[in-house]
Amino acid sequence: MMSFLSFRTANEAFHSLFPSIEETEEAVAAFNCAYSKDILHQGKLYITPHHFCFHSNIFGFEDRVVIDCRDVSAITREKAALIFPTAILVRCGNVKVGCGFEIDLWTL
Asked: Any idea of the CA torsion for 81, 47, 59, 78, to the nearest 10 degrees?
Protein backbone atom coordinates (compact mmCIF):
# COMPACT_ATOMS: atom_id res chain seq x y z
CA MET A 1 0.00 0.00 0.00
CA MET A 2 1.30 3.45 -0.92
CA SER A 3 1.89 5.94 1.86
CA PHE A 4 0.20 9.32 1.57
CA LEU A 5 3.50 11.03 0.72
CA SER A 6 4.39 8.61 -2.09
CA PHE A 7 0.80 8.79 -3.41
CA ARG A 8 0.96 12.58 -3.49
CA THR A 9 4.37 12.50 -5.21
CA ALA A 10 3.09 9.99 -7.80
CA ASN A 11 0.05 12.18 -8.44
CA GLU A 12 2.21 15.28 -8.93
CA ALA A 13 4.43 13.38 -11.37
CA PHE A 14 1.35 12.05 -13.16
CA HIS A 15 -0.14 15.51 -13.69
CA SER A 16 3.17 17.00 -14.82
CA LEU A 17 3.52 14.22 -17.42
CA PHE A 18 -0.11 14.32 -18.56
CA PRO A 19 -1.31 17.95 -18.40
CA SER A 20 -4.33 17.13 -20.60
CA ILE A 21 -5.85 15.10 -17.74
CA GLU A 22 -7.93 17.25 -15.38
CA GLU A 23 -6.33 18.11 -12.03
CA THR A 24 -9.34 16.66 -10.21
CA GLU A 25 -8.66 13.20 -11.70
CA GLU A 26 -6.10 11.46 -9.52
CA ALA A 27 -4.03 8.40 -10.26
CA VAL A 28 -5.30 5.53 -8.12
CA ALA A 29 -2.36 3.26 -8.99
CA ALA A 30 1.05 3.46 -10.65
CA PHE A 31 3.09 0.49 -11.89
CA ASN A 32 6.51 0.07 -13.43
CA CYS A 33 6.02 -1.79 -16.67
CA ALA A 34 7.10 -2.20 -20.28
CA TYR A 35 4.84 -1.08 -23.11
CA SER A 36 5.03 -3.34 -26.14
CA LYS A 37 5.40 -1.26 -29.30
CA ASP A 38 8.05 -1.85 -31.97
CA ILE A 39 10.42 -2.52 -29.05
CA LEU A 40 9.71 -2.68 -25.33
CA HIS A 41 9.46 0.77 -23.78
CA GLN A 42 10.23 0.67 -20.06
CA GLY A 43 8.16 3.19 -18.15
CA LYS A 44 5.28 3.71 -15.77
CA LEU A 45 1.57 3.02 -16.15
CA TYR A 46 -0.75 5.34 -14.23
CA ILE A 47 -4.34 4.23 -13.75
CA THR A 48 -7.09 6.75 -13.00
CA PRO A 49 -10.85 6.20 -12.78
CA HIS A 50 -11.14 7.29 -16.43
CA HIS A 51 -7.77 6.68 -18.11
CA PHE A 52 -4.80 4.37 -18.57
CA CYS A 53 -1.72 6.60 -19.02
CA PHE A 54 1.73 5.26 -19.91
CA HIS A 55 4.95 7.28 -19.98
CA SER A 56 8.50 6.28 -20.83
CA ASN A 57 11.67 8.28 -21.26
CA ILE A 58 14.55 6.30 -22.72
CA PHE A 59 17.68 8.30 -23.54
CA GLY A 60 15.56 11.45 -23.97
CA PHE A 61 13.02 9.81 -26.29
CA GLU A 62 9.67 10.26 -24.58
CA ASP A 63 6.60 8.19 -25.32
CA ARG A 64 3.14 8.86 -23.90
CA VAL A 65 0.00 6.80 -24.39
CA VAL A 66 -3.38 7.87 -23.00
CA ILE A 67 -6.33 5.50 -23.28
CA ASP A 68 -9.80 6.64 -22.30
CA CYS A 69 -11.60 3.86 -20.41
CA ARG A 70 -14.70 4.45 -22.56
CA ASP A 71 -12.67 3.29 -25.58
CA VAL A 72 -11.62 0.00 -23.96
CA SER A 73 -13.45 -3.01 -25.34
CA ALA A 74 -11.54 -5.72 -23.39
CA ILE A 75 -8.73 -6.26 -20.91
CA THR A 76 -7.16 -9.70 -20.88
CA ARG A 77 -4.39 -11.37 -18.96
CA GLU A 78 -1.52 -12.45 -21.22
CA LYS A 79 1.82 -14.20 -20.93
CA ALA A 80 5.06 -12.24 -21.08
CA ALA A 81 7.82 -14.03 -23.01
CA LEU A 82 5.23 -16.75 -23.79
CA ILE A 83 5.69 -18.15 -20.26
CA PHE A 84 4.98 -15.73 -17.42
CA PRO A 85 1.35 -14.63 -16.84
CA THR A 86 2.40 -11.10 -15.88
CA ALA A 87 1.08 -9.05 -18.78
CA ILE A 88 -2.21 -7.47 -19.74
CA LEU A 89 -3.59 -6.62 -23.15
CA VAL A 90 -5.91 -3.63 -23.47
CA ARG A 91 -8.11 -3.67 -26.57
CA CYS A 92 -9.58 -0.47 -27.98
CA GLY A 93 -11.70 -1.63 -30.89
CA ASN A 94 -9.18 -3.29 -33.21
CA VAL A 95 -6.15 -1.66 -31.57
CA LYS A 96 -4.17 -3.71 -29.03
CA VAL A 97 -1.96 -2.15 -26.35
CA GLY A 98 0.17 -4.59 -24.37
CA CYS A 99 1.95 -3.96 -21.07
CA GLY A 100 4.20 -6.35 -19.20
CA PHE A 101 4.41 -5.66 -15.50
CA GLU A 102 7.17 -6.12 -13.00
CA ILE A 103 4.54 -7.03 -10.42
CA ASP A 104 2.55 -10.16 -9.81
CA LEU A 105 -0.89 -9.59 -11.31
CA TRP A 106 -2.35 -12.37 -9.16
CA THR A 107 -2.24 -9.91 -6.25
CA LEU A 108 -4.44 -7.36 -8.00
From this structure: 10
Cβ neighbours around 18 below 10 Å, total: 19
At residue 51 the predicted structure's pLDDT band, cuts being 50, 70 and 90, is very high
Closest listed residue to residue 87, CA positions, set 102, 65, 67, 66? 102
Q: Taking residues 12-36, what's their average pLDDT?
A: 87
> What is the gyration radius of the CA atoms in the chain, in angstroms?
14
Separation of alpha carbons 14 and 53, rounded Å: 9
Taking residues 65-85, what's their average pLDDT? Answer: 79
